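pasting for the record
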Amino acid sequence: MSKEIPVFFAADDCYAPLLAVALNSAVKNSNRGRAYRAVVLQDGITEENRRKLLSLSSDNFKIDIMSMKQNFDMLDDRMSNRLRCDYFTLTIYFRLFIPAMFPEYDKAIYIDSDVVIADDIAKLFDIDIGDNLIGACNDLSIADVPPLVAYTENAIGVKGNEYINSGVLLMNLKKLREEGFEEHFLHLLNTYHFDSVAPDQDYINAICNGKIHYLDKAFDAMPNNARPVCDNPVIIHYNLFEKPWCYDNIQYEKEFWRYAEDCGFIDEIKAHKESYTDEQRKADKDCLDLLVSNAVKICKKKVTFKNLYESGVKIRL
């Protein structure tokens, strides 16, 4: 059993309050007999907010805050000639570089910051995914949106019930390095510049399909009024626009506010919700409509993951 459970997050300063909720919940639900390390890959978090985030650590749950730019710069020479996209572009895909940036780990967890960890995160880490590249959950946030399901099948080339959400990943870092995951990703990125609606998620699905261990939905439970709540979620993921810090009557909102109360940012979170405007709500709806519209357009393009895969181009590892 690993001496330390590495859990990766990413955030900028705007997301620091939500990251605090996630970290607070992870620390409080950790097993006191295990050792954990949260690694926050950050861009622009202020010193004050860094101090508040670090204060959430405990004796068995260490929190480190590291610059994303610094870690990109530390990538070894074998990748340096492939990093042709600018830094801003690469940050969209940062989780894909965790295997290369942290060679000291053979296995790790990546989690988005808009989550509550409602149970011991070790329950996820301890799952044996064999020689699969990642463990992840089917993306149920799009399962009831036919144009998005069509997009996964016709643009990404992945069946709807096999398309995963990349907000929670159990990563086989050792296998990802052995398979040359980051080099393959960079080759595809620099060669084909695929249009996509979920950039990192679509690459992960296209590359890893067939080598994914599908996790129980309790590890990536998402608010969705079209589906019943998960009885015993381990990780609650407030994906897309189902966010209790913006809207009322969101599934799992009680769990969010429970861990927000003493995370150090409760005033900022409440102020954000109280000031959320009708214009912002309309922008959310327009964004979702645009997402669907773009998905339909991408399916009609010649350069898609599916079309190239079917023409013989190596897409999957």
